[in-house]
Amino acid sequence: MTTINILIGAGFSINAGLPDGRTLSNILKRHYEREFVREFSSRDYSEKTYTSWWLFPLWKISNAKNVMKTANSCYYEDFYEKLEGVQKLDKNLLEEFVCYSYLKYYPNLNLEPVLRCWNEALTDYATIVNDAKVNFQMVIKDLLSPPYKTEKYENFMQAIVSLLQWDDVQINIFSLNHDLLFEELFSSKSLQYCSGFSPGEKKIGKVTYYDADLNLFKKSRLNLFKLHGSIDLWKYASKQGGNYAKVIDGDPFMMNSEQAFDMLPYFLTGNIEKQHAYDKDHLIKQLFKYFKSSLDSSDTLFVIGYGGHDYEINKFVGDWFKSNNKIFIIDPSEHKFEEEYNAVHVANYVTDISSDFFLKLI
């Protein structure tokens, strides 16, 4: 059987009205600059001396804005790590700043109550950032949720339909995206596909879901691997231990946490979290095993809308690549794989190429 592997990045979804990594990062930064600074600057503290009244608000608002500035060159997954770093402010540096700033103007001031005020504020600051990290996942979920503009993907989908008419072809789509665009595209063509979840519905409270069953991939000719999780993927507790569910109806976020589901959808954010999941998370590890074995069984890889910013993904591709392998890049921008692996670069969005052209590449 001929295996066709397609690696999908955020650029694939742009013409569906979804943001790419850079745009998503900018949207999130604007959101947090507004929310984070307003929340932090509105807090009151128990010991306001007339000195801390004028200096502390300047520091806290300035520092909150600086968090946003340090993330200006980041993709959104790196931005999460910037928030993580804010919680680890060095208390010694803070006290040094306070002592210098106050004693410069008030050399005889008793600093003990002032430092108490600042330490209280520092704890509060870390709490606000933690709330921001939790909210981060839900903001992304809202930004990436349907409806999508699917009409521009007609040529691509026609190519998929044509390939499935061949008896000896298996199509494996490895998506790094969290959105549900492929699910909607496949549904629009009434295509049967496997995403690694059993079609037998289950219920917990008001939530209807499918359980993970990765063995199903072996039986399907059209597979969708969500390597970085998905906005409809949730972890939940069961008698057998931790499990994963594809939620098809209901919102686990609205349920009581005692009803088994995590409070947030499961998708990977930040390089540190990704690396941990690649090594430790059962589901993600299994998906990457399929990625590796699928690459090993084929001499061709299509890369669509992926900019090459994930070290681990690049390592998988690099380990697989040999001189007789072919990589086709479909992306309007320059790509590091073009020179590194002598890849064929089609400088277009996938929505701008015909189904016949796509089939000729195969």
Percent of residues in beta strands: 15-25%
The total of helices stands at: 12
Helix content: 40-55%
- N-to-C span: 14 Å
| Element-by-element helix/strand order | EHHHHHHEHEEEEEHHEHEHEH
Number of domains: 2
What's the total number of strands? Answer: 10
- In CATH, the homologous superfamily of the largest domain goes by the name TPP-binding domain
Give the spatial strand order of the biggest sheet: 5-2-1-8-9-10
Structural classification = alpha/beta
pLDDT averaged residue by residue: 78
Largest sheet: 6 strands, parallel
- Radius of gyration (Å): 24 Å
What is the class of the largest domain in the CATH system? Alpha Beta
From the coordinates shown, what is the CATH architecture of the largest domain? 3-Layer(aba) Sandwich
Which fold name fills CATH's third level, the topology of the largest domain? Rossmann fold
Query: Uncertain regions: pLDDT < 50 for 5+ in a row?
Result: 45-59
Q: What would the principal axes of the Cα set say about the shape?
A: globular
Question: How would you describe this structure to a colleague?
Answer:
By secondary structure, the protein is α/β, with parallel strands linked by helices. It is 46% helix and 15% strand. The radius of gyration is 24 Å and the shape is globular. The relative contact order is 0.14.
Question: What tags apply to this protein structure?
Answer:
362 residues; alpha/beta; Rossmann fold; 2 domains; 6-stranded parallel sheet; 4-stranded antiparallel sheet; 12 helices; 10 strands; globular
Topology:
Blueprint: E1 2-8, H1 21-41, H2 50-70, H3 76-86, H4 91-105, H5 112-144, H6 154-164, E2 169-175, H7 181-188, E3 202-204, E4 207-211, E5 222-226, E6 233-238, E7 241-249, H8 271-280, H9 282-296, E8 300-304, H10 311-320, E9 326-330, H11 336-340, E10 344-346, H12 355-361
Parallel strand pairs: 1-2, 1-8, 2-5, 8-9, 9-10
Antiparallel strand pairs: 3-4, 4-7, 6-7
Helix pairs in contact: 1-2, 1-5, 3-5, 4-5, 6-12, 8-9
